[in-house]
């Protein structure tokens, strides 16, 4: 098995003025190359923390993050990160926004610009290169943000609730578009979402986390019939409901075992 991403016994402790919070405890995870994995779990279970560690933005307090066989020491061009908010600069055109990643990496070349234009086209934004972000709808802006992430040609995409601010119809369209685009390019993806149906419809594997402290709770492999269908088709399939129900139950149980407050303070742990 070719694992492109690995978390090895990773823990993360945040230390503020007078307290330490164990945000993630002893988490191990592997993501196979070209696969789509979703992380679900209650608010505060460490999803964003896990993505930040995978992105190399946050060094684990304990354990290792391995990308393509190497322990990562910091942010890498192999990994792209897309957030819930599109963070397009309002004073830049769509093309210039899409080129930002290449620019920051010192790679704004003719070739890079051509590739970015072709991505804009592929994601239905051909003809909008010179428009400003405020002239676009939320769904179009999020597509522009996806182009910006893909333009640097990362192997892995980390997606933190990228569809959650969108209207239902747009969100469903984007799920299809994102899944088919990433699949056709052979990208590996890790999606964080609070929407269980979205996780079930888009992923090969769904990992459920519990909180207090954030930790692994369980994992579901999505059957091939659903995996191979586009998310909108998957949602209509008969097997879909039972997968959704299992995920729902697991999430409920993880919540019960996790506790109600946010995070776990180290100094309040029983010794
Ligand atoms: P999620 O994305 O699943 O909602 P987070 O990764 O944002 O969870 O947070 C996990 C836990 O770590 C929470 O208890 C949160 O309050 C805490 N936490 C997150 N970021 C920080 C930080 N910078 N400093 C202190 N605590 C933090
Ligand atoms: Mg989060």
From TrEMBL:
Keyword Transcription attributed: no
GO MF annotation list: ATP binding
Ranges where the ABC transporter domain occurs: 5-236
UniProt keyword annotation of Translocase present: no
Record-linked Pfam families: ABC_tran (PF00005)
Cross-referenced Gene3D superfamilies: P-loop containing nucleotide triphosphate hydrolases (3.40.50.300)
Alphabetized InterPro entries for the sequence: AAA+_ATPase, ABC_transporter-like_ATP-bd, ABC_transporter-like_CS, ABC_transporter_ATP-bind, P-loop_NTPase
Domain of life: Bacteria
This protein's UniProt keywords: ATP-binding, Nucleotide-binding, Transport
TM segment ranges: none
Full protein name: Vitamin B12 import ATP-binding protein BtuD
The organism of origin for this protein: Paenibacillus plantiphilus
Higher taxonomy: Bacteria, Bacillati, Bacillota, Bacilli, Bacillales
Gene designation: btuD_3
């Amino acid at each position: 098995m070719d694992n492109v991403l690995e978390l090895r016994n990773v823990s993360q402790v945040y230390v503020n003025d007078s307290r330490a919070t164990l945000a993630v405890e002893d988490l191990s995870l592997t993501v196979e190359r070209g696969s789509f994995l979703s992380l679900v779990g209650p608010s505060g279970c460490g999803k964003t923390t896990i993505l930040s560690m995978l992105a190399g933005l946050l060094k684990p307090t304990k354990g290792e993050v391995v990308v393509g066989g190497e322990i990562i020491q910091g942010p890498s061009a192999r990994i792209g990160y897309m957030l819930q908010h599109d963070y397009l600069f309002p004073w830049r055109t769509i093309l210039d926004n899409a080129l930002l990643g290449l620019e920051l990496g010192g790679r704004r070349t003719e070739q890079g610009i051509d590739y970015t234009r072709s991505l804009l086209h592929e994601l239905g934004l051909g003809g909008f290169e010179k428009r400003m972000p405020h002239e676009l709808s939320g769904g179009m802006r999020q597509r522009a943000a996806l182009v910006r992430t893909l333009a640097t040609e990362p192997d892995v995409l980390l997606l933190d609730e990228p569809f959650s601010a969108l209207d239902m119809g747009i969100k469903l369209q984007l799920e299809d578009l994102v899944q088919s685009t990433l699949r056709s390019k052979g990208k590996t993806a890790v999606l964080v979402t609070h929407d269980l149906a979205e996780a079930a419809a888009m992923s090969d594997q769904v990992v459920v986390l519990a909180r207090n402290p954030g930790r692994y709770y369980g994992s579901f492999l999505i059957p091939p019939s659903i995996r191979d269908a586009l998310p909108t088709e998957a949602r209509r399939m008969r097997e879909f409901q039972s997968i959704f129900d299992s995920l729902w139950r697991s999430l409920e149980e993880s919540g019960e075992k996790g506790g109600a407050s946010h995070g776990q303070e180290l100094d309040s742990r029983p010794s």
